[in-house]
Amino acid sequence: MLAPTQPASPPDLSSYGRLPGPTTDLQQVKRDLKEFGYGFVKDALPPEQLSALQKRLKDQAEGEVKAGVAFFDGGPKKPNQRIWNLPNKGQEFLGLLEHPLVEEFIPECLGDGYHLSSYTANINRPGSKGMGMHTDQITINPAIPQFPLGVNLMWFLCDVNEENGGTRILPKSHNGLVAPNNMSDISGTTFASGPAGTCLVFESRLWHATGPNVAKEGERPVILQFYVRHFVRPQENFTLSVTPEVEAILADKAKQALGFRVTATLGGVEGFRPDGTMVKRPENPVVALNAEGSKA
């Protein structure tokens, strides 16, 4: 049995010749995703949708601060704010679950029955120290398999660049042949950059990290939709955390993504359910019974 190959240290960025940049050519983005582990879709959000998402996220962030339920990180002073479980927090976020790019990239990369592992926002503010290099697949499977188990869609709600904390990326690290020498060292990485409305598509094996924000003012809000294959346990248990009011208005594609669809016998309620069945919490679940058929 051959010993596993030891990943090499990050090469100089100039050795790549070119790196992915924002483009409206979806086939090029798919080629970049395959070659580099990431790609950028330019103008992924039309102006009206972008404006609505900017306002809804800003209002939600301020509301969570005032309600005393906000979550902060990004270093000792914790300048960054994260917003969890976006399906509950506005119709604008539900709309992104039906964005054409979901159907364009996710089934092709992850197969049928994919679902949402997490749906969050990260507001990176000046003074953020960034985070350690990681892959989104570390918590799914410690070993690097021959195919991705997840794909992330990161939506830029502002112009993103190196100064305001653009995500640090180690190109081509998704193939397991390159890895950071030190998780806290971003040398050898590039940074995500693109205008507001761009969508960064990257797969779960890619080494990356929130970049340090050295800007003097402003903030870098992004939304992250992390999808996984149907057999992977998600980070957020949406079938419990999504409110009944939201569940009632979800389209079937969104219900599938949030875990309400049976795929390959997985995700059933009270036993076997045919593939494709949409499930919900049973109103009259079968409980412990006595021999006469009454509750035990």
TrEMBL record:
<feature type="region of interest" description="Disordered">
    <location>
        <begin position="1"/>
        <end position="24"/>
    </location>
</feature>
<dbReference type="InterPro" id="IPR008775">
    <property type="entry name" value="Phytyl_CoA_dOase-like"/>
</dbReference>
<protein>
    <submittedName>
        <fullName>PhyH-domain-containing protein</fullName>
    </submittedName>
</protein>
<dbReference type="Pfam" id="PF05721">
    <property type="entry name" value="PhyH"/>
</dbReference>
<dbReference type="InterPro" id="IPR051961">
    <property type="entry name" value="Fungal_Metabolite_Diox"/>
</dbReference>
